[in-house]
Amino acid sequence: MTLTVAIIGRPNVGKSTMFNRLVGKKLALVDDRPGVTRDRREGDARLAELSFKIIDTAGLEEADDASLLGRMRAQTEAAIDEADLLFFVVDARVGILPADRPFAELVRRSGKPVILIANKAEGGKGMEGAYEAYSLGLGDPIALSAEHGEGLGDLYDALVPYK
Ligand code: GDP
Ligand code: MG
């Protein structure tokens, strides 16, 4: 059976960049502007010899839409339901924001195994943010850079037990 992983986190932490990195193609739209339409995507991911199915989550359509949070939440919940394992992504440079917490809460409540990822940590940047991530209570963060492809060996080590 194929392992299914869902990438969860607030907008702009680098979920789609992570998805593209692992799928090896630019299937997901990466954008730093809030309010851009970004669909949920699935792809076949590869990390060294590990292969798994991966789900990117998004759901931002109109940033000022009152139902935005509800829609993002529904999409995240559906992806969590479908997954065997969750990647919870935070921005190591920015640290933990209030906006991270509702997503972390959904992850925690699901009871599914989670790998905590502190992204944007290229060149050893953002270590404070990575330490802050411990406060989410989702385990030890893996500091990496989806954009620069750094730290993927640590992600590999964390994934091996689930394969
Ligand atoms: P998403 O909203 O969580 O899917 O985030 P995106 O993948 O769209 O990325 C949001 C922004 O963060 C974009 O400008 C990316 O280029 C940037 N980003 C993603 N990963 C990294 C990274 O590893 N390092 C840095 N410095 N920026 C990144
Ligand atoms: Mg995205």
Automatic annotation (TrEMBL):
Associates with the 50S ribosomal subunit. The gene is der. The chain holds residues 1 to 163 of 452 of the full protein. It comes from the Bacteria. This is GTPase Der. The lineage of its organism: Bacteria, Pseudomonadati, Pseudomonadota, Alphaproteobacteria, Hyphomicrobiales. Residues 3-163 form the EngA-type G domain. GTP 1 binds at residues 9-16, 56-60, 119-122. Coiled coil: none annotated. GTPase that plays an essential role in the late steps of ribosome biogenesis. Belongs to the TRAFAC class TrmE-Era-EngA-EngB-Septin-like GTPase superfamily. EngA (Der) GTPase family.
